[in-house]
Amino acid sequence: MVGTELVWEKCAGLVVETEAYLVEGDEACHTFKRPSARAFVERNKPGAAYVYFTYGAHWMLNVLVKGGPRDGIILIRALEPRRGIDLMRKRRGLEDVRRLCSGPGKLTQALAITKRHHEIDLCSDPAHCFRARPNDNLEVVADPRIGISCAKDFPWRFSLRDSPFVSVPVKRPRR
DNA sequence: CGCTAGATGAGA
DNA sequence: CTCATCTAGCGA
Questions:
Q1: Higher per-residue confidence, A148 vs A130
Q2: Residue A53: which nucleotide is closest by CA–C1'?
Q3: CB of A65 within 8 A of CB of A127?
Q4: What is the pTM assigned to this prediction?
Q5: Rounded distance in angstroms from the CA atom of residue A55 to the C1' atom of nucleotide B7
Q6: CA atoms within 13 A on the CB side of A173
Q7: Mean pLDDT, chain A, as a whole number?
Q8: Is the C-beta atom of A53 closer than 7 angstroms to strand B?
Q9: With helix as H, strand as E and coil as C, how does A51-85 read?
Q10: pLDDT for position A175
Q11: Which are the contacts of A53, defined by CB distance < 8 A and separation ≥ 6?
Q12: Nucleotide B1 C1' to residue A139 CA (A)
């Protein structure tokens, strides 16, 4: 998904950072402890939006993927704003383009994503979808997930190499 | 720049 | 009680 364009009504941005959560056996995935999350996976097709509220303040946008034992939920963590930037600025109350969508809670605020988008199909609505883009030299790096308190070792945070739009800069080896 | 505190609501 | 976060406020 990194490198695709997330289209959201009047706004759009390049996906530059995601995190993968595995439905089976991943302690950090909602399905590990929540029957409601498992029911969501059961009743939905791949491409369904999984939107939830956390820390009493922030919405998180996730996408359901399916592949048998590799069923998963992908958290969209950061975007490089491409369209509707002034609208994003207004919603965020910020000017700096790099800070508009550089975090999972920031991008939902910039795109006005809330509970009402939970469970919508992101494969059938042109106003809410991921568009493939021609990417010639796309370099994606994998690192440990951040912001979680368990299963920290899985290197399932994926980001566009050297993107200045990610949430937390990827640690680069010194040279 | 880095660090910390605290807001705030839903699920279990 | 925990939590896949963010920002203001403070100090260097």
A1: A130
A2: B10
A3: no
A4: 0.94
A5: 8
A6: 3
A7: 93
A8: yes
A9: EEEECCCEEEEEEEECCHHHCEEEEEEEEEEEECH
A10: 43
A11: A59, A60, A115
A12: 29
